[in-house]
Amino acid sequence: MTDTLIEQADRLVAAGRVGDAAALLHAAGDSGDVDALFRLAAWQLIGDPLPRNVPAAYALLSRARMIGHVDAALMEIALTANGSAGPDDWTRALSLLTGAAGADPVAAEQLRLVRAMRLTTDGKPVTQPAPRPVSEQPHVRHFPALLTADECVHLARTADPLFEPASVLDPASGRRVRHPVRNADEAAIGPAREDLVVRAINLRIAAASGTDVAAGEPLTILRYGPGQQYRPHHDAIAGVANQRAWTMLVWLNDGYAGGETRFSPSGLTVKGRRGDGLLFRNLLPDGRPDPAAQHAGLPVTAGHKWMATRWIRQAPLDLWAS
């Protein structure tokens, strides 16, 4: 019956009757239908077909979690930890994850990984990641073993169902088109999917870079097959006031050939091992893009390369802003 009700709601939306669809799902949710609650929450997180309302979606997820919806529980945990619907609360998020782990193997695996980390009570690393200087111009720092092998696997698994060809918005047509300089597959782990393992990794990256975790864009996973590459580019974005000040790259696997990261102006070429991080500064002291930070991901010649990228802005940004 639930599937039929969801289908009815979707048909109403397709007919332009969004209000009727929402009323139908609200009525079902008030009767204890967890799938109806979850669909309403998803609509309000996405902002389509209902306006985006993250606090309202959070309340719906909480109701669905208390009835027993596993996916709602995991999403509520993510939003609790990153503060999307109020102050970030690692302690409560960890308590929710502990409760969910008893009945859900996905939550149990996340809890195992989190418990293996050395964290403070707010999810930050107990010790600061230690960098190794690589270059001053461009400003590049290497962080050996920033992530564990298990953490790398977790990021790859989290991203796997989200992958799509890298694309950009075509200003002429308003449509998504293939990325002109990157022909890999990409997956951004947004705030609704930022489980406690991903959140702790983002907090570790913030500690390593000396930045506010709220200044980071969603952690993006890139997958390159043979012949795929990221042509020379600069991570700074033209015309953006809150500029990308730093980039952290993390290698998620070994066992491939090619795929080095090369800073084009200097010829500096780097290839880390699984779990290593590479931090570089994109801006000059006056805030202008640093020409020396132009870089490329050279073509992979064999195997597949998996990378995590965290672009870090000068100031916090709202990841829910449309």
UniProtKB/TrEMBL annotation:
<dbReference type="InterPro" id="IPR044862">
    <property type="entry name" value="Pro_4_hyd_alph_FE2OG_OXY"/>
</dbReference>
<dbReference type="GO" id="GO:0031418">
    <property type="term" value="F:L-ascorbic acid binding"/>
</dbReference>
<keyword id="KW-0847">Vitamin C</keyword>
<keyword id="KW-0560">Oxidoreductase</keyword>
<keyword id="KW-0256">Endoplasmic reticulum</keyword>
<protein>
    <submittedName>
        <fullName>Prolyl 4-hydroxylase</fullName>
    </submittedName>
</protein>
<dbReference type="GO" id="GO:0005506">
    <property type="term" value="F:iron ion binding"/>
</dbReference>
<dbReference type="InterPro" id="IPR045054">
    <property type="entry name" value="P4HA-like"/>
</dbReference>
<keyword id="KW-0408">Iron</keyword>
<dbReference type="InterPro" id="IPR011990">
    <property type="entry name" value="TPR-like_helical_dom_sf"/>
</dbReference>
<dbReference type="InterPro" id="IPR006620">
    <property type="entry name" value="Pro_4_hyd_alph"/>
</dbReference>
<dbReference type="GO" id="GO:0051213">
    <property type="term" value="F:dioxygenase activity"/>
</dbReference>
<keyword id="KW-0325">Glycoprotein</keyword>
<keyword id="KW-0223">Dioxygenase</keyword>
<dbReference type="InterPro" id="IPR005123">
    <property type="entry name" value="Oxoglu/Fe-dep_dioxygenase_dom"/>
</dbReference>
<keyword id="KW-0479">Metal-binding</keyword>
<dbReference type="Pfam" id="PF13640">
    <property type="entry name" value="2OG-FeII_Oxy_3"/>
</dbReference>
<feature type="domain" description="Fe2OG dioxygenase">
    <location>
        <begin position="214"/>
        <end position="314"/>
    </location>
</feature>
<dbReference type="GO" id="GO:0016705">
    <property type="term" value="F:oxidoreductase activity, acting on paired donors, with incorporation or reduction of molecular oxygen"/>
</dbReference>
